Amino acid sequence: MDPKPRRIGVIENGDTTTGEDLVLATLIGNGDDVGPLVRHAFEMGRPEPLVHQLNHVVKKK
User: What is the superkingdom listed in this entry's lineage (predicted)?
Assistant: First the structure.
């Protein structure tokens, strides 16, 4: 018996958004407060990933 080849997730239309990006985009689209997310990122001392996610969301719009 031959083992089945592993499938790699297909990216449709070049869409590379992650779940975190979708959550962030949904929060922004609904007009929700993202202040707690920003505050938490700075408290953790790692705001760079949040900045990259925000840039990605802006480019998608």
Answer: Eukaryota
pTM, entire model: 0.58
**Distance (Å, rounded) from C-alpha 58 to C-alpha 28?**
10
Report the C-alpha gap between 3 and 60 in whole angstroms: 39
The one-letter amino acid code at 17 reads T
Q: In the chain, where do the E strands start and end?
A: none
Amino acid making up residue 18: T
Domain extent listing, the chain: 32-60
Quote the DSSP letter at residue 45: T
Tens digits of residue pLDDT in 23-57: 888 888 899 999 998 999 999 999 999 999 889 88
Q: 2: exposed, middle or buried (C-beta count within 10 Å: 0-12, 13-18, 19+)?
A: exposed
